[in-house]
Design brief:
This protein is of the alpha/beta class and about 300 residues long. Helices cover about 40% and strands about 25% of the residues. Helix 6 crosses helix 8. The structure holds guanosine-5'-diphosphate and magnesium ion. Magnesium ion binds next to helix 1.
Length: about 300
């Protein structure tokens, strides 16, 4: 809690998978705190991203994409997104305007309207960089209709275009009040948790089909050494013996590649050298096991 005040409040970033919610959060904060990959369902749980200006504090809630769940993990992810909508002051619906709206937009719109009640809704048309400027408004129009938002804006999380305007607009929509967090706090996750998420993102980049989705990352040890180097020990849990073989790869080559990618992104985040150790274990069918889901941190607060 802080004695600073101005406009402040919670903004839920919602939408279907892969529209760029986490990219937008990272771009607004100017730092990668949320994992981004080209694959859907990269984000599994809600994460705060806090943007503090002298006159305002915007607390973003990055959420998993709302989708049709095929297991208990998927159901948890939808519940997390729905909880964010219920808790937020403003609902920001992100749409990928380089794509036509599809049936999944109708699903998200319906859920959102039911949960959001009378809260302010803003439609953020993302990926503007993929469309010629004179066509952008036309591409956004059908989304505005489906989501029935009070306000709308077009941005690109990739190039950063219009993000300052977006922040200004959101601030103007927030209520007056005390800041919720200290001005220098960026997120509610610790570096240890973010490291785990960056390892999972590396798995999503390197592994195909169902395999990376079957992975849960547990950080067993996160220690800073006297020389400033950080030592991280982690276990990757998969659902089947066959997946374990794939993740390890021939002669350990896949695990080595994943470890290298993850180490580089963790080093970039921490700004220090990292020693990363990865181990693989089987936890049968964990995505449908409520007890395992809780143990891996997939639980509503
Ligand atoms: N061209 C373009 N790609 C983007 C933009 N924002 C996100 N992406 C890409 O879209 C994919 C999904 O992004 P992500 O942030 O993980 O989406 P989320 O699932 O909604 O959180 C990634 O490959 C991003 O690099 C954008 O403004 N322009
Ligand atoms: Mg995401």
């Amino acid at each position: 809690m802080s004695d600073l005040h101005g406009r402040s409040g919670y903004i839920a970033l919602v939408g279907h998978p892969n529209v760029g919610k986490s990219s937008l959060l990272n771009a607004l904060l100017g730092q990668q705190i949320a994992p981004v990959t080209p694959r859907p369902q990269t984000t599994r749980r809600n994460q705060l991203g806090i943007l503090t200006r002298p006159d305002a504090q915007l607390v973003f809630l990055d959420t998993p994409g709302i989708h049709k769940p095929i297991n208990k993990l998927g159901a948890f992810m939808n519940e997390a997104a729905e909880m964010a909508i219920r808790e937020a002051d403003i609902i920001a619906v992100i749409a990928d305007i380089s794509q036509e709206p599809g049936p999944e937009d109708l699903v998200v719109a319906e859920r959102m309207t039911a949960l959001a009640g009378k809260k302010t809704k803003i439609l953020i048309g993302n990926k503007a960089d993929l469309i010629q400027e004179n066509h952008q408004a036309d591409r956004q129009a059908p989304f505005i209709k489906i989501y029935q938002c009070d306000s709308h804006i077009i941005v690109s999380a990739l190039t950063g275009s219009n993000l300052n305007e977006l922040a200004d607009r959101l601030i103007s929509l927030l209520p007056q009040g005390e800041f919720y967090f200290e001005p220098d706090q960026l997120t509610d996750l610790y570096e240890r948790d973010i490291s785990g998420e960056l390892i999972r993102a590396a798995c999503l980049h390197r592994l195909r089909e169902e395999v990376p989705y079957s992975i849960a990352v547990r950080v067993d040890n996160f220690k800073e050494r006297a020389n400033g180097m950080v030592f991280i020990e982690t276990t990757l849990f998969v659902e089947k013996e066959s997946q374990k073989g794939i993740v390890i790869g021939r002669g350990g080559s896949m695990l080595k590649t994943i470890g290298m990618d993850a180490r580089l992104s963790i080093e970039e985040m921490l700004g220090v050298k990292v020693f990363l150790e990865l181990r693989v274990k089987v936890e049968k069918n964990w995505r449908n096991n409520p007890e395992a889901l809780k143990r891996f941190g997939y639980k509503l607060e």
